Amino acid sequence: MSAISTNEAGIPVATRPRRSAQLGMLIFAMIITVAGFAQVGLARDGSLPAGMYGYGIGLGILAAGAYIVVARFAPYADPLLLPLAVFLNGIGLAMIYRLDLNTSADAKATIAAGKSYSYIGPSTTNQLEWTALGIIFFAVTLLVLRDIKIVQRYIYTIGALGLFFLALPGFLPSSISGAMGAKIWIRIGSMSIQPGEFSKLALVAFFAGYLVNKRQAMSTVGKEFGPIKLPRARDLGPILVIWAICLGVLALENDFGSAILFFGLFVSMLYIATERFEWVAIGLLLLAGACLVAPMIPHVAQRIDTWLDPKPYFDGGCKINGVIHNQMAQTCSAHGGQYIADSGQLMRGLFSMGQGGVLGTGMGQGEPWRTPLSYSDFIFTSFGEELGLTGLMVILLAYALIVQRGMKAAIATKDNFSKLFAGGVSFVFALQVFVIVGGVTRLIPLTGLTTPFLAQGGSSLLANWILIAILIRISDAARRPAPQPIQDEGMTQVVNTA
């Protein structure tokens, strides 16, 4: 908390806030992480795992470095943001380590039986390396962006770069950008990045700067239909362009999640900037139009089919003479059918969470690896099985606190650009969590987004650490006491010489 002291003259002087609370929460987050590693080893063979020391110490050093950077360059920042990010990153590492052990054991058993097995690992080491790089990006962001308003000077350049990198995978060959039907990657040799993760931050900055400049125009009323006040036709242009871009992303990249994310982001920021519900209503109408177009895209249509009724597609749907059969791709091709989709991943994830119940099976005592991509896209269901509904509620509460503290920083800051930037960053974080959690729980169709900080993946981890740095910088500016006016040592006397 910030403290105000007084000097000898009784003038208030701002002092740096005490960071003991933040340090205590960081230590608590590390204790939970190490306990997760320990529980995995104790559940498997009754001993503490070797990875607990290496990965625990590695993450602890990185967390300490991040703490020092915040204490030095953003001393008035919200003390909750960094511990929450370390907590989520840490338990994600523990779960990936737990899944690594089973994957490695399966690989050894299969190879010992004389069969081939493709295994790349351990992925925990890669995730810790990406965590280190993410915290370096976090520190660089705080060092470079001493004033967040610097970003406002380059919003059009940043916006153009954001759109370019968002659309780039859609124009590349599937061999470079494709994965599981969606084209959202760029692969260069053994390295791959997901540019959309960084585009979301660039587009938030662009939207914030654009809406600060056009706020008055967006608030102007055109025609009125009873209680509904529509904006002027020319002011509808930006939202229609964004709507068209989102449809283009949907069509080019087969990426349902990113289309929802970016369109929802822009509509929400419009509402924050203008405080007019009509923009939300228009956005919902355009979303309904996009939902009518989506089934025309084969990959998205398959996602919708497996969402509405996953049972016929458990091993893959095969359409033969207009009738859908439950067959795998190889069998379907042999019978001259059209392979449609595979809902096995979704259903196994649901079974996994159901197995966990309220309290879970305990770390290292379940079978979450039976769900494909249990360490990345479906890591949320892995936590559901081993930590149960209680553990999932704790994770969702941590996400909610990050969003709440971001919104609090947006409300507290006096700069309009910072308000919109912090609000947009918080909303995009919340919407990403909703889209991925809604997908794996069958609330909405499954998408290709990743669970922030938990899931394995370098691009997502880097982008989310930058996101936390932005919120810390804005909260530091919002909470920093205003500089005190310089006082004269003595009172000025007026001498009458008359």
From TrEMBL:
Pfam families assigned: FTSW_RODA_SPOVE
Query: Where is the protein situated, by its record's location annotation?
Result: Membrane
Answer yes or no on keyword Cell division: yes
GO terms of molecular function:
lipid-linked peptidoglycan transporter activity
Keywords from UniProt, A to Z, are: Cell cycle, Cell division, Cell shape, Membrane, Transmembrane, Transmembrane helix
Membrane topology, as annotated: Multi-pass membrane protein
Q: Which GO terms describe its biological process?
A: cell division; regulation of cell shape
Could you list the residue ranges that cross the membrane? 21-40, 52-73, 80-99, 127-145, 154-172, 192-212, 233-250, 256-273, 280-301, 378-399, 420-441, 453-472
Highest rank taxon of the organism? Bacteria
Keyword presence, ATP-binding: no
Output a single Gene Ontology CC term carried by this record: plasma membrane
* InterPro entries in the record: FtsW/RodA
> Cross-referenced PANTHER family, in alphabetical order?
CELL CYCLE PROTEIN (PTHR30474), PEPTIDOGLYCAN GLYCOSYLTRANSFERASE RODA (PTHR30474:SF3)
Q: What protein is this chain from?
A: Cell division protein FtsW
UniProt organism field: Actinoallomurus iriomotensis
